[in-house]
């Protein structure tokens, strides 16, 4: 447990999860699925992780109106005023701005952790230590602190952070540059250089400095006082959001703030991280069985099959022969068989194509 009650976490759980289609669907995306059959969904696991670090009442959930009932069902311990359901899908900068306003209404001195809801953390004790050290850093520095992990493979599906000048504190460096989803050749160069870390999407900041950054770089995002009216209640805030949120830019916090701010830092972390947002990411993070296959909570018979990832619905059996390096994923009315390598862009393409040609019921 950290020493201050001013620490908060916002779990970002509004994404559609289309890179894990067809198991992740628009009406029931990946963060609400018990993907590995362990009894807890990815959202619940993320909540559990931060409940070890913070008081439960200091954890907030940002999601979409479409998923509000799923959040309530899966996290009944989270109070209604700690769930922010956006009226329209936007990227992370507007989401963070709203969460910031909500928390600062009750605690202007807040320190905030922003976390995706779909990560795998191998070492929870190291995670607790890294987050605790990060909170101490941002409490005494006007800075945004990103959490980086040394790459273990040249992964084109991830974002990368280049470390700059050492701060003299722990394993924290000034950020030199960000690069989003490089091609494989550049990813290999980044890995070999030892100067680049994977961008986990986790970041920390004290609320007053983060608000200053958002207002400086994204003045159109949640300037509640623009009209001269001070928003002081959650009811007023939610009314403001309903009316104004659709006008906000569809921009990520990385592009909107982090790449433009002078005071962005990266901590080298060692908690064993994987982004469970892509099939390839899931494959790389899982232990392999014979033939380097990853079989997720599924019934299969494999022969002469290697380097595949397989995920089926309960009650289905797959007999697979002769496949090397494929995704075999089935859910309800869709079966996907696709090369695993660099599949993130491919799966997105297929989802868009299916939506246009076959309709919403297949996405």
* Quaternary organization: single chain
Q: Poorly predicted ranges (pLDDT <50, ≥5 residues)?
A: none
Q: Strand arrangement, largest sheet? A: 6-9-7-8-10
Query: Which structural category fits the helices and strands?
Result: alpha/beta
The overall strand count is 17
Share in β-strands? 25-35%
* Straight-line N-to-C gap: 41 Å
Largest sheet: 5 strands, mixed, barrel
How many discrete domains? 2
Number of H/I helices: 10
- Along the chain, the helix and strand elements come as EHEHEHEEHEEEHEHHHEEHEEEEEEH
What is the helical fraction, as a range of percent?
25-40%
Mean pLDDT: 90
CATH architecture of the largest domain: Alpha-Beta Complex
Would you write up a description of this structure?
There is one protein chain. The protein is of the alpha/beta class and 363 residues long. It contains ten helices and 17 strands. The protein folds into two domains: 271 residues, Spore Coat Polysaccharide Biosynthesis Protein SpsA, Chain A (Alpha-Beta Complex), CATH 3.90.550.10; 79 residues, no CATH class. The strands form four sheets. Strands 6-9-7-8-10 form a five-stranded mixed barrel. A four-stranded mixed beta sheet has the order 12-14-16-17, covered by helices on one side. The protein is globular.
């Amino acid at each position: 447990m950290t020493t201050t009650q001013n620490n908060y976490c916002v779990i970002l759980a509004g994404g559609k999860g289309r890179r894990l289609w067809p198991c992740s669907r628009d009406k029931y995306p990946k963060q609400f699925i018990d993907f590995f059959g362990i009894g807890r969904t990815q959202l619940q696991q993320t909540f559990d992780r931060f409940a070890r670090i913070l008081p439960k009442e200091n954890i907030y959930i940002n999601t979409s109106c479409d998923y509000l009932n799923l959040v309530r069902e899966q996290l009944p311990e989270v109070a209604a005023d700690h769930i922010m359901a956006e009226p329209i899908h936007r990227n992370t900068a507007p989401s963070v701005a709203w969460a910031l306003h909500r928390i600062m209404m009750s605690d202007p001195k807040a320190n905030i952790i922003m976390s995706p809801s779909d990560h795998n953390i191998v070492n929870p004790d190291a995670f607790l230590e890294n987050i605790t050290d990060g909170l101490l850093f941002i409490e005494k520095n006007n800075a945004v602190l990103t959490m980086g992990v040394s790459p273990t493979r040249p992964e084109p599906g991830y974002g990368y952070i280049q470390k700059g000048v050492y701060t003299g504190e722990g394993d924290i460096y000034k950020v030199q540059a960000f690069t989003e989803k490089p091609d494989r050749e550049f990813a290999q160069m980044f890995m070999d250089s030892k100067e680049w870390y994977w961008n986990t999407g986790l970041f920390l900041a004290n609320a007053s400095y983060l608000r200053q950054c958002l207002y400086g770089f994204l003045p159109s995002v949640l300037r509640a006082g623009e009209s001269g009216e001070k928003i002081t209640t959650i009811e007023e805030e939610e009314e403001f959001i309903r009316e104004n949120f659709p006008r906000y830019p569809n921009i990520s916090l990385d592009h909107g703030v982090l790449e433009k701010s002078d005071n962005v830092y990266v901590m080298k972390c060692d908690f064993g991280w994987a982004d469970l947002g892509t099939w390839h990411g899931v494959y790389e993070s899982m232990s392999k069985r014979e033939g380097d296959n990853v079989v997720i909570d599924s019934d299969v018979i494999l022969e002469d099959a290697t380097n595949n990832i397989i995920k089926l619905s309960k009650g289905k059996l797959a007999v697979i022969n002769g496949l090397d390096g494929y995704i075999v994923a089935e859910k309800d009315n869709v079966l996907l068989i696709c090369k695993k390598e660099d599949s993130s862009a491919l799966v997105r393409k297929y989802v868009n194509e299916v939506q246009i040609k076959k309709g919403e019921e297949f996405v």
